[in-house]
Amino acid sequence: MFRSDMIPTHTLDALELTFNSMTSLAATFTEEQWKTPTLLPGWSVQDNYSHLIALERMLQGLPPTEHRSPEFDYIKNPFGATNEDEVDSRRHLSGVQVFEEWRDIIALRMSTLRSADAEYFAQDSMTPTGPGTIAEFLHMRVLDCWMHEQDVRRALDIPGHEQGPAAELTIDRLTRSIPIVVGKRAATPEGSSVLIVLSGPVDRHIMTTVVNGRAQLGVEGNVAATITMDSQTFVQLAGGRLSYEDVRSMITCDGDIELATRVVTQFTVMI
After folding, report:
1. What are the backbone angles phi and psi of residue 207, rounded to the nearest 5°?
2. pLDDT tens, residue by residue, 202-236
3. Is the pTM higher than 0.90?
4. Contacts with 156 (C-beta within 8 Å, 6 or more apart), sequence order
5. Which residues lie closer than 8 Å to 223 by C-beta, 6 or more apart?
6. Which SUPFAM superfamilies match (predicted)?
7. CATH class for domain 171-264?
8. What is the spatial distance between Cα 123 and Cα 133, in angstroms, rounded to a whole number?
9. What is 4-157's CATH number, 1.20.120.450, 3.40.1160.10, 3.40.190.10, 1.25.40.10?
């Protein structure tokens, strides 16, 4: 039996908040702004919205494009090629046309999600990280949408929506992969901890300790290195938007500098 409290209300609220923020952001874009390049290779502001439109259409059960994109050197895998097919299929459109499709699909999606019952959210679904449920996939949709909103804002120098439920959900989800960085990639010694301090707009203290050869979040230990940065720098590093060299002036490392450097130079956890 599925209970009403199994509906992921917090996730839906954060998703709708991000949808609405992206709609308000784009409402007055000029065509030049729509075509402005972002940090994502080959993608403009418009391409970011096209990408999100395509994924929400897929989740709604609508058919994908039959268009096939040219080959670009920034396409690394079949999933990237599928994304590019959808994005490229809309490149001939004006920004206003893409914006209209965006408003239509998010209205349809939220209507579907707000009227769904707990059984719907418990259904099996393949997610970017493997088998899961629709509820788990939606959790990742908040991350994806909020990350792309920030990509657009950086490209156009329109900062905003840097804190709140969607930002916190995104940062906490990215944090889940930090043990891979601290343990496997940075080879932190047994019993040692790496503390990552986010100094706002979202504040976090992320402690990761190697116990019995495995890095674990939230376990206290001997802090060997402390890394301090703001949450937007964290997002750009973890999300693969920028490298450590791009943002090193925004990061402070204390303690074992060599260990801290190994962490921040291998920080990408999202492709």
Report:
1. -100, 125
2. 999 999 999 999 999 999 999 999 999 999 999 99
3. yes
4. 33, 36, 45
5. 192, 193, 194, 195, 207, 255
6. DinB/YfiT-like putative metalloenzymes (SSF109854), SCP-like (SSF55718)
7. alpha beta
8. 5
9. 1.20.120.450
